[in-house]
Amino acid sequence: MIYPPAERQPTVDRLHGHAVPDPYRWLEDPGDPRTREWLAAQDELWRSCAAALPGRDRWHARVAELGAAGTVTPPLWRGARRFFLRGTAGQRHPVLYTAGPDGAEEALVDPCALDPSGLTVLDHWQPDLSGRLLAYQVSRGGDERSELRVMDVATRRIVDGPIDRCRYAPVVWLPDGTAFFYVRDRRVCLHRLGTAAADDVVVRAEERSYGLGSGPGGRWLVVSAVAGGGNDVWLADLAAAPPDRPDLRVVQEGTGAATVPAVGRDGRLYLLTTLDAPRGRLCVADPADPGPGGWRELVGEDPEAVTGDFALLDGPGLPGGPVLLVGRTRHAISEIGVHDPATGARIGRVPLPGLGTVGRMSTRPEGGHEVWFSYTDSVTPPGVHRYDARTGRTTSWAAAPGAVDVPELAARQVVYASADGTPVRMVVLARPGSGPRPAILYGYGGFGRALSPSYSGYVLPWVEAGGVFVLAQVRGGGEEGARWHRDGMLERKQNAVDDFVAAAERLIADGWTAPDRLAACGESGGGLLVGAAVTQRPELFAAAVCSAPLLDMVRYERSGLGPAWRGEYGSAEDPEQLGWLLGYSPYHRVREGVDYPATLLTSFGGDTRVDPLHARKMCAALQHATSGPRPVLLRHESGVGHGARAADRATALAADMLAFLAAHTGLEAPPRGR
């Protein structure tokens, strides 16, 4: 294949005794005419190759059919009013609704009504405590640089804003709805309705990645900030000091643990923490003395499950009084235990629809006997379920709004040994059959994020067509708790790559697939994982997709959200850490004369998290270096970013990825007319 020319320049950085070549540095600048010309040529190449992919239209049709299940979220209650998102087949974006005591639903924010082009996304929303006002944030073109507005729910009138630079800002309202805490430019601020954002009081001026939370009746303010593998946390009683000068008391600082505090309606401070418990435990304390010295363990660490959520039910009619629900994932499968809030003893279990994934639990702020949560698994579209503690029953509350013909498949969990002997799990999804089949090995392995069972219009068409889809739950993720995360970050990042490679070797050894039928796939941090695996063990894979990937780990912290990820990956400014990064950085491990797998890199023009420069530079490097006939292609898409996008554009991306991988692993597209 003849690729667009890309000049290799003699750029070499001298860093802490290392000579670091960077021949495609010029491709970092999207405004450079040479970059624009090269990108246009790559786009033309992709389009011509994509048009020739066998069954591309059939992949698109089936992804669209299975994606028509739509989406619905659990209710967020404010008194008798509830707020929720729902997206149906044919809608490009979910719509935010509200419903009052009579159950009548009213649309509040419809992104496509705001912008028929589909480029505007609803990023975040939070009603005040009365349900009278709604703070919501939208961004355009995928850049996630949100603008915040406040709506009067009754009249739909915008009463405040827009306030810019509010990227996914959490919002905590004061009880009277006259002001709210939020995050702007990575600082915690207090905004009073009707005043200019420039006059907002800065509550915490240090620029960090903050989260905010509140307590019953809006009395308590929780402020957290990412710190290394955990967070720093502070708690303020807003009844004890003016809101513009909250007395933020230290819950924890510099522990390396992750802690989520919440004051319950019973007046106790509940702390879900990994401090001295890598898989998580639940403690209680006096809010007046929130530091670790005052914590008392209520529900201890489970040696085989990760504790990740809790809810207190204390409504009238509960037999035996209040109950505490504790959400866990056992090897990435969700469960909810029922506990005695006084002793922490487990007294039961919440019935769940199957072996799948449960979302965050939602309760009424004023208390009650009910909890709502989402549920999904490999063949079940996400729906909302309700648990009633009075009866001990779980019932469906809101099913996915669309009807879909879901194929049957079998899911099995396989335990295998990584290079250092560590047991790792992978989930294999397949239909009955034998012999090596086309397979996709998917992984992420970063930021403590767990790969758990979920419905996917991307996975199901592949399995339905006779392929095997595998989720590798490698180190760096959160499937087995905080230690699992730490063992795949910083100086131990290679562990995640080794786990992924060992998964590929096991799939081949067990006869699920073969090197000429195996594809690797990852997105964002998973694109880094795949890039590292493919450059270290190219002979294992026939094809690969790296979507919105991090690939130049020497310069990753110079763009996008890279500076915020130093705690996960390290920094090239540190001599020791540079050595870690160079050890696996995919861009720096590309070698001339290697027969690399067929590789599709995808990038997005509005991506402000991972700069598209990574995909551009890696594409040029692989096109220059590969010695075989398999293609290296770049699919660049403008007008979208790293996260949410219109449903039709998500469908097109998924279908193109499947068509590319199928073409290079020998899988025939699904038949027409399903």
TrEMBL record:
Residues 4-398 form the Peptidase S9A N-terminal domain. Keywords: Hydrolase, Protease, Serine protease. Gene3D superfamilies: alpha/beta hydrolase (3.40.50.1820), Prolyl oligopeptidase, N-terminal domain (2.130.10.120). InterPro entries: AB_hydrolase_fold, Pept_S9_AS, Pept_S9A_N, Peptidase_S9_cat, Peptidase_S9A, Prolyl_oligopep/macrocyclase. Its EC number is 3.4.21.26. It is an enzyme of class 3 (hydrolase). Residues 455-666 form the Peptidase S9 prolyl oligopeptidase catalytic domain. Belongs to the peptidase S9A family. This is prolyl oligopeptidase. It comes from Planomonospora alba.
